[in-house]
């Protein structure tokens, strides 16, 4: 296209001020409750895009009327997309309980209600009500954590990675920390124990080998500049075969011989509930670790605990007080909503209520196979009663706990494997992700798979509705 013609088309593009005076501009403002500046930004983006298309000769003919209609239609689509929530409800049909990409633990109803109440009102976050004086947020739930874990003291930071960083920075800066080579783990987001230790200013002393570390490896590494022995629970992988690790009890004995360093155990997930009594995994219970004599322990709040994202630190009072006074404690502190959710989660563990029925994470991990099967059968029956577009099979399957927790543990489950007469599996899965609420599934052997272990009974009507929406296409 000649330069003269390009310039001619460019001159035909409507100026933004003209579009702002158009009735369609005013209608969109009213319908979507936008400010003029917001809508003008979307209009400018559309005009700019058309200008680029003309210059690149992707747009070679148009009428002013058609162009204006296209601009307003596309701007409206952008407005609708912008108005949608970025953080959306998701139905998790993957069977992975602590799905990191889907927010890990679902909170209990008690926690949700308490968060909402604290969020909409003022609270005593840093106020001592009885004394009428300034207080500390560290004290809000410390008594609950002490009771739940048997520790002398406790505090909370924003996640377990932050807990590790604070502990190393406050207690081992410019000093040596002994860690087994088999425990130098990397978790999600390339977070490595060795790297976080370097950032904290502590000096890593590696002992043993990848597969075997002996008690004498630790004993030989202890010296004058040793600040800490750190045991890292390898919660996101499992080494099998020719292996050996040193138990917590054995490391406590080393610590008791020499009182000049700290024994710190990072549990990663950390559990207050004994899943072993259900024959599930071999995760240590926090209370048992504290009772063994470990000085300080850290673990996540949003994994096996079943609460909000948080890093919980429990242990000896003198050490915890030292952490509370460190400058990083303010940098890494949690807000009122996290504390509210964690408070109610801990109260469930400590009350007469059954944690199995009140904490979604524990309930989903320990669900009966019969209950999952019945839920899947109800789904299949409901779908077949309303449409003949699907072919569904009920199959036995395997659920994962997820979140880097209990690697190698497989939970038997029931899965509905689904085919649609018009859409291949990838397309059907994509359409389900476009539903409200979003439905996330797995694909196996060209079938969409829905694992009912991670689907709440309250979500069943929305799940069925999502599959029936395919009839609109």
From TrEMBL:
One of its GO terms (molecular function) is L-seryl-tRNA(Sec) selenium transferase activity. It is found in: Cytoplasm. Pfam families: SelA. It catalyses: L-seryl-tRNA(Sec) + selenophosphate + H(+) = L-selenocysteinyl-tRNA(Sec) + phosphate. Keywords: Cytoplasm, Protein biosynthesis, Pyridoxal phosphate, Selenium, Transferase. Pathway: Aminoacyl-tRNA biosynthesis; selenocysteinyl-tRNA(Sec) biosynthesis; selenocysteinyl-tRNA(Sec) from L-seryl-tRNA(Sec) (bacterial route): step 1/1. The modification N6-(pyridoxal phosphate)lysine is found at residue 303. The keyword Transferase applies. Its cofactor is pyridoxal 5'-phosphate. The keyword Transmembrane helix does not apply. Its EC number is 2.9.1.1. Belongs to the SelA family. NCBIfam families: selA (TIGR00474). Converts seryl-tRNA(Sec) to selenocysteinyl-tRNA(Sec) required for selenoprotein biosynthesis. PANTHER family: L-SERYL-TRNA(SEC) SELENIUM TRANSFERASE (PTHR32328). This is L-seryl-tRNA(Sec) selenium transferase. It comes from Virgibacillus byunsanensis. The gene is selA.
């Amino acid at each position: 296209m000649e330069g003269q013609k390009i310039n001619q088309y460019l001159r035909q593009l409507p100026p933004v001020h003209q579009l702002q005076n158009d009735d369609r501009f005013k209608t969109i403002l009213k319908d979507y409750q936008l400010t003029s500046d917001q809508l003008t930004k979307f209009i400018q983006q559309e005009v700019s895009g058309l200008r680029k298309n003309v210059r690149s000769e992707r747009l070679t003919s148009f009428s002013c009327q058609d162009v204006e209609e296209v601009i307003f239609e596309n701007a409206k689509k952008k407005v609708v997309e912008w108005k949608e929530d970025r953080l959306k409800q998701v139905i998790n049909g993957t069977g992975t309980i602590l799905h990191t990409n889907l927010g890990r633990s679902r909170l209990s109803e008690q926690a949700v209600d308490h968060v909402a109440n604290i969020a909409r009102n003022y609270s005593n976050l840093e106020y001592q009500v009885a004394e009428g004086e300034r207080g500390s947020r560290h004290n809000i739930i410390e008594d609950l954590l002490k009771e739940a874990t048997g520790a002398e003291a406790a505090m909370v930071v924003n996640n377990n990675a932050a807990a590790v960083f604070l502990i190393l920075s406050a207690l081992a800066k410019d000093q040596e920390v002994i860690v087994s080579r088999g425990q130098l783990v990397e978790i999600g987001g390339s977070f490595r124990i060795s790297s976080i230790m370097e950032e904290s200013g502590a000096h890593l002393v590696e002992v043993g080998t990848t597969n075997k570390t002996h008690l004498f490896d630790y004993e030989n590494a202890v010296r004058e500049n040793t600040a800490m022995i750190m045991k890292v629970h390898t919660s996101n992988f499992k080494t099998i075969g020719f292996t050996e690790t040193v138990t917590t009890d054995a490391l406590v004995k080393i610590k008791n011989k020499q009182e000049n360093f700290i024994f710190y155990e990072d549990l990663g997930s950390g559990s207050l509930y004994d899943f072993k009594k259900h024959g599930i995994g071999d995760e240590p219970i926090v209370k048992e670790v504290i009772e063994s004599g470990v000085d300080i322990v850290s673990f996540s709040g949003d994994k096996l605990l079943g609460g909000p994202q948080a890093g919980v630190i429990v242990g000896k009072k003198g050490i915890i007080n030292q952490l509370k006074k460190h400058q990083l404690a303010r940098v890494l502190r949690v807000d009122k909503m996290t504390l509210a959710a964690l408070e109610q989660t801990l109260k469930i563990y400590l009350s007469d209520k059954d944690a199995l029925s009140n904490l979604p994470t524990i309930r989903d991990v320990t669900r009966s196979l019969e209950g999952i099967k019945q839920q899947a059968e109800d789904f299949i029956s409901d779908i077949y009663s309303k449409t003949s577009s699907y072919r569904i099979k009920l199959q036995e399957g395997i659920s994962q706990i997820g979140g880097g927790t209990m690697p190698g543990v497989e939970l038997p489950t029931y899965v509905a494997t689904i085919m649609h007469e018009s859409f291949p599996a990838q397309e059907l899965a994509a359409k389900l992700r476009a539903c409200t609420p979003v439905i996330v599934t797995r694909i196996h052997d060209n079938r969409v798979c829905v694992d009912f272990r991670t689907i709440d009974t309250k979500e069943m009507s929305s799940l069925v509705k999502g599959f029936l929406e395919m009839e609109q296409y």
